[in-house]
């Protein structure tokens, strides 16, 4: 049985508590001492003496709900109780606590309500233990948790409570104190915790000097004068000297991409839900089929797959026979934080795939369930839009205007903190940031942002990060507007607009938010939310989106464009929460917040095996994939990404040349007229070989891709249906393969191959084909680069003028970027040197005969000394041939760019 239940503020004030057994305040004292104050534990269960203590936070109210029970009992319903109690309490008193003026909640009511709640949950627990029959979902605790508790009416419930430890007067005083406390900057309030632990991450935006001297508060349910003073942060001095070192965890820094962009780190594999093993046993498979939704703990023996097990050997699966299993699966999903609707949707998808199937073995049932679940998940988790914030910001820069992002969400989820983490990321990308303090409602909000701006400045000498603020009580839409205008004048690249937290049901505040959005039409609306559980996620997101739509007065209203999930490190079943949120909005999760430093902003990236993977393709970081996906029009014309492809092709070309250089020149393979084509014309052995290869490649639709060009013709039609490539390039007829072939044979082969004939004709022709195809792809990529440059709004007018004048030289000059070329040649030399050299057993590069790089030491035995390819030759090849020909392609393409194209009004000269 439960021994003790308590509701307290995170700072240590007991608002309400109740003892049922002998465990009086001592375990609680220990909990506060050991966990809350010293932050010793990140888990939410704690054992002390004979007691187990569990707790849950309600962050927007800064409350903690604590349950104590005898360790030996291992009560299974405590999580449910905590969840339901915190939901009910927040529903009843949350508004009044937040408004700070709503009168005093009635203690009597809460005692009654809690008692009934406990009774219901204990009864259900007893019942579920008695019955071994599979329950319908509607009979489960999870279902009750989702729906029933929130609806419980206190007046229907009898008061059977025992005397509370804290009397009504005290409760009243505590609420007063809580109001005072919540008037102070939220982040500052967390300072006390972690004070004794030097290893603990500091809280961003907090004042370190105070933190060091802060003592753990006594936990006796009373407030001393000293405590009362320390709880009042309303006068905290924001001008303290910043010790910024603590605000960035070097080990959590992201990486700089090849093009210099700074990308936040990916969520470590260890941060994710545990990985999935194909070798898992049937028993383990009771966890549930989809990898991302597995249970952490071993499932009960009556788990999902054991139901399926009973079905094997049946003739055919029917909707009826699947019903109990689907009900169980739905319950499981809900317990994994998936909202009820979404769980239903997933179950329906799985059931649909199974109905009518005849499933002989357990394995085949397992495979079917897994496959159906994965397909359904994939469909839900593929966001409707792709988001690359840095690219969008670059676009706004080109348009000479600041890029604007509004951060919205309910109270206490960490909007300002995550806005500041985002600012840190932007500053790492050398962007100038203006933070607009548009939370004119919560006292302390502006000061908090001031501290962040000051911290961020202190971190980076040249960082441009400023605060635009107009104090409290003013119209936030107007402040945002002024901030944006000011950013235009001051040359800030990005305006981050902080807004007041608001509950989704608070109509006036939601109207104000819609107004801010309508007036300012920001580039992005980012919803900052805790990695929310179940239906709460759906409710918040749906209502925020509805408010943006209903109150906007616009024909094309805005909606949430992306999400930042905060406190991601505090929940267990992350994927369920992420799933609910993505499903509800159809929008991607841009980042997840995982801790207390500016570096605690990460990409959510999950393994390839069907777990949720928005970080990889859809986040602001959007890890660059080297092979461009030309089917995805959104990515196809980013100059940075196109250059990444060129960088990757450097490797392909160097290795292809190394491969060819193994063989002698074999001149006879290039003699014209030796072989006959199908159409009667004649060619060299190489041309014959190339043609045969290209015929096969054509059949598998290689040349339907806009970045592949054949050397020979005619070629057969593809046997595969052609893919639908979006029209990324303007129609053109450029193919410079003839030039490439000529230069390759005359200039390149003689330079990289030993003269003579070694009879390896087939091998040389194979390698020649690889070299030619890589070079052709690289050089024709010039078309994409040219299109990207042409689409740059800052350049388009100039290009149009030069194209109209057919000024080839001027076009060539405009598209040339000498810095990029110089960097390319430097990189290429280094690559060619390394790829073309032997490496000693200890890893050094053998540069010259008997010498290793950077020293005069003799190369280790075993390292041969002849270079596979000369770096000079590769660099020369690029300098004299690859780059100039690429640029030729660019110019030719641009000269055709206006053909049949309607010049937009604002691009006309
Ligand atoms: O990266 C570009 O901007 C390109 O146009 C490509 C390329 C190249 O061939 O590598 C060509 C011209 C520029 O001067 C720089 C590099």
TrEMBL record:
Gene3D superfamilies per UniProt: 3.30.450.60, Chorismate mutase, AroQ class superfamily, eukaryotic, P-loop containing nucleotide triphosphate hydrolases, Signal recognition particle SRP54, nucleotide-binding domain
GO BP term, pick one: tyrosine biosynthetic process
Region Disordered: start-end pairs: 182-221, 251-283
Primary localization: endoplasmic reticulum
GO molecular function, a single term: signal recognition particle binding
SRP54-type proteins GTP-binding domain location: 588-601
Subcellular location: Endoplasmic reticulum membrane
Reaction equations catalysed: chorismate = prephenate
Compositional bias segments (type: Acidic residues): 268-283
Extent of Basic residues compositional bias: 182-194
Protein name, UniProt field: Chorismate mutase
Organism of provenance: Linnemannia schmuckeri
